Amino acid sequence: MALKRREKILFFLVIIAAAIFLFDRLYYTPQNRKVLSLKGEVKAADLKLSELSLLTQGLETTETMIAQMEKELTGLGERTLSGEEFRAFLKHLARESDPLQMKVISLAPSEEKISPLEEKKGLPPTDSRKVTVQVILHSTFAKLEAYLKGIEELLFLIQIDGLQIERNEEIQPLLKVTLGLKMYIIML
User: 163-178, pLDDT tens digit by residue?
Assistant: First the structure.
């Protein structure tokens, strides 16, 4: 029994379909899965690289910010009073009132200890204190303005914490001025 031409063509088509099916199942589909898994790994590696580049950029900006803060800190250290400079500052407050014909009635410093930040950073501890100086003086408005400008021009970090001006009948034409100054002192 010989196969007819149609049967031969159909048999040949079945063999081609089976070959395509076997090729797809045995070679193409496993290779396609490998390619997809490799593409996923490449995407994951790209994400990690972009993360690392962002981290390095963040690290660089952090390093520049740290350098900038260290410069500011050294600037603050230069403007912070030490123990001897504080004594000189108090003398300066008393002396500045003489040429202006002001009367300093009292200078009363009070201090508060600050927890040193250097201990947290592993640096040797320094004893720093916040000092408030209460100054009571008798003056006129113009002389008080010059006195405050003189304090403002000092190279130290000094904050005027309070200013109270009162008119007192006993000391006419002068005014009674209560001035609070706040500063930080490093004891070396």
Answer: 998 888 887 788 888 9
| Terminal alpha carbon distance of the chain | 116
**In angstroms, rounded to a whole number, what is the distance separating the alpha carbons of residues 41 and 171?**
87
Instruction: Determine what percent of the chain is predicted with pLDDT higher than 90.
Output: 24
pLDDT digits (tens, 9 = 90+) for 101-150: 678 788 787 777 555 554 455 545 556 677 888 888 888 888 888 888 88
Q: Which of 90, 63, 74, 101 has its CA nearest to residue 181?
A: 90
pTM equals 0.47
DSSP string, the chain: -PPPHHHHHHHHHHHHHHHHHHHIIIIIHHHHHHHHHHHHHHHHHHHHHHHHHHHHHHHHHHHHHHHHHHHHHHHHHHHSEEHHHHHHHHHHHHHHTTTTT-EEEEEEEEEEE---SHHHHTSPP-EEEEEEEEEEEEE-HHHHHHHHHHHHTSSS-EEEEEEEEEE-GGGTTSEEEEEEEEEEEEE-
Distance CA 33, CA 151 (A): 78
